[in-house]
Amino acid sequence: MIQQVLTLKDALRKELNSTIDLVNDTRSKWESSEDSIPESLWISQCIVQMIWLKINTILMLAEGTIVTTNNSNYRIFDCSSILPIVRSAYELCFVYHNIFITAETNIEQEILLNIWKIRGYNSRQNMLTLPERYTTRCESDLQRISDLKAKILSLVSKLEISDDAKKDIKCIINYKGDKIKGFKFIKENGKITKIEDIHVNQGVKEMPQFKATEALFNWTSMHTHASYLSLRQFGQSYKPDEAYYKQLKSILTSAYLIITTVLNDFKSQIIKTE
């Protein structure tokens, strides 16, 4: 089991190097290009970089944290701190795939991207107390939300879409919460008939390589929130045994799936825009 973990770590490092090399090369080309690069592409490479950093952090934490006492040093292998990062990286991977890969047209992609922006701006609107310096930002965010809604409705008017699907869109953009979801345009004979929402833990619907998405999501949730069971599993951090290495193998396998998925997605996106 230990050898399998070491092999996974080496595979992760290789994929991380490939990912950041591609991002840096692509960004350099965009910066030197005379053509205007769409905002969506800059956003997409930022998401890839964020995922890259999270997977790097997972790899570093997987080496253990050295604790120094008066008499000795020991190493804690803290899966409980790694798992919330796995969840965050997976959610970003899910969002990226939904917006930039699932969408079949540029208009659909722009609609999904703008919905995601609205949910982001809603986050600050829903804060009960804010420092005074952020009040102006909240007011500006409200205007941005209004502008994004108008932009989405304008884009929708260019689509072949049913009245029911238009109602779905209006319901989605008028939602005042910040819950992250994926959305899919369901079509019949080329016409959009409804908008299907996809919960983050159902990512396997769009990314079949994540076969145990729901189990992964529930497991990472247990360590993201204050669960008693996470405390029970934390005890293994001090005395790594076979069960611990199985956990670490699962974590590294998930991290590998995330980074390879987003790397392949980014490659596909670049090819589509060339």
What does the model show?
The chain is mostly helical and 274 residues long. It has one domain. It has nine helices and four strands, in the order H-H-E-E-H-H-H-H-E-E-H-H-H. The chain has helices spanning 2-32, 39-61, 79-102, 106-125, 135-156, 163-174, 213-224, 228-234, 242-273; strands at 65-68, 73-76, 181-188, 191-199. Strand 3 (181-188) and strand 4 (191-199) form a beta hairpin. The relative contact order is 0.16. The model has no long low-confidence stretch (mean pLDDT 87).
Distance between the termini: 43 Å
Number of helical regions: 9
Strand order across the biggest sheet? 1-2
Tell me about the biggest sheet?
2 strands, antiparallel
Radius of gyration: 21 Å
Structural class: mainly alpha
Order of helices and strands: HHEEHHHHEEHHH
Percentage of residues assigned to helices: 55-70%
- Tally of individual domains: 1
* Low-confidence parts: none
Arithmetic mean pLDDT: 87
Instruction: Tell me the quaternary state.
Output: single chain
The coarse silhouette is globular
Beta-strand percent range = 5-15%
Number of strands: 4
